[in-house]
Amino acid sequence: MADPTVRKRRLGSELRRLRESAGLKLDDVADRTSLPAAKVSRIETARIGVKADDLNALLDLYAVDDADKRDALHNLARHGGRRGWWQTYRDIISPAYADLISLEADAVSMRSYQSTLIPGLLQTAAYARATIDALSMTATSAEVNALVEVRMARQSVLSRREPLELWAVIHEAALRPQVKSAPKMMKEQLQWLLDKQDLPHVSIQILPLDAPPHVGMSGSFAVVGFPETADLDVAYLENLTSTLYVEDPAEVSRYGRAFERLRAAALPFDSSADLIERLKDTI
Q1: Of 4, 26, 198, 256, which one has the fewest beta carbons inside 10 Å?
Q2: Which residues, in sequence order, are CB contacts of 96 under 8 Å at separation 6+?
Q3: Ranges of the chain with pLDDT below 50
Q4: Which pLDDT value is given to residue 69?
């Protein structure tokens, strides 16, 4: 069985949340609809999709009257099995990474905080190659090349007809690494940030080294927003070996509040651009 797409998981987790909010168990759903409890469970765990009539029966039972919310969930159900260009690279990217790309493709906004790296959507090919090679440790040269291709292809969300709205808060430490074998790499990367900041849908702020203790000290994260409703937004965190997706609305909201604190603590846009320019000139 193919791994469930992130769309199926978003739909399943939301249906489970709605059922639990209604105070219903799986057997209760089975008693009040024509859906067996086992089938509802498989839908909620993204093992199978859900037909439109069955979805309507569930939403009626859960008293979901909001038309926009119902349309959003039906949209997830219709496209639950759709897979994108990144499936060409399924031999070298993890399911979690494929999920991230899928999220970016569907999203209308992303709020990203990075403590040690330039966000992937704002990287040059040379910077991406250097960081992928350093972090993957065991990847072959051909695999690194393919992963760089994937990272560059991801950036198409910033140039599509309705581009992703990206707001990135980047810690100053991420702007300072130097690579002796490629001295121009970081200079070009910093100029790339300045160029991207000129786009109307890209906002970049720098959190300075001398900032007081802040919520970002717990690590990098991003909040991905969707055009349907806020309670379908997703936060994600990643480290060397794993990626964690946070889908519970209350927890996602907490990451949203954390980002607002980081945004407030970071330098204003003009001051951020000035700092990037000064660091670039020192290379």
Answers
A1: 198
A2: 238, 242, 243, 245
A3: 1-2
A4: 86
Same fold? 6-78, 95-122+156-281 = no
Please tell me the distance from the alpha carbon of residue 29 to that of residue 161, in angstroms, as a whole number.
42
Contact 178, 110 (CB under 8 A): no
Edge-first strand order for the sheet with 243-246 is 202-207, 165-171, 109-114, 221-225, 234-238, 243-246
The CATH number of 95-122+156-281, from 1.10.10.920, 3.30.870.10, 3.90.1170.50, 3.40.250.10, is 3.30.870.10
> Which amino acid would we find at residue 53?
D
Strand pairing of 202-207 and 243-246?
unpaired
Q: Are 99 and 86 in contact (CB under 8 A)?
A: no
Q: What is the pLDDT of residues 76-93, one digit of tens each?
A: 888 766 667 777 888 888
The set of residues, in sequence order, having a beta carbon less than 8 Å from that of 148 and lying 6+ positions away, is 125, 128, 129, 132
Tokens read off for 277: 């320019």
Please state, rounded to an integer, the average pLDDT across all residues of the chain: 89
Cα–Cα distance between 270 and 186 in angstroms, integer? 20
Enumerate the β-bridge partners of residue 223. Answer: 111, 235
Q: What is the pLDDT of residue 84?
A: 72
Q: Could you state, in order of their start, the residue ranges of all structural domains in the chain? A: 6-78, 95-122+156-281
Q: Report which residue type is found at 182.
A: A
* Inter-residue contact 282 to 223 (CB < 8 Å): no
Determine which helix (DSSP H) or strand (DSSP E) holds 234, and give its type and residue range. strand 234-238
Q: Considering the entire predicted model, what is its pTM?
A: 0.79
- Is the Cβ–Cβ distance between 85 and 153 less than 8 Å? yes
The CATH topology of domain 6-78 is 434 Repressor (Amino-terminal Domain) (1.10.260)
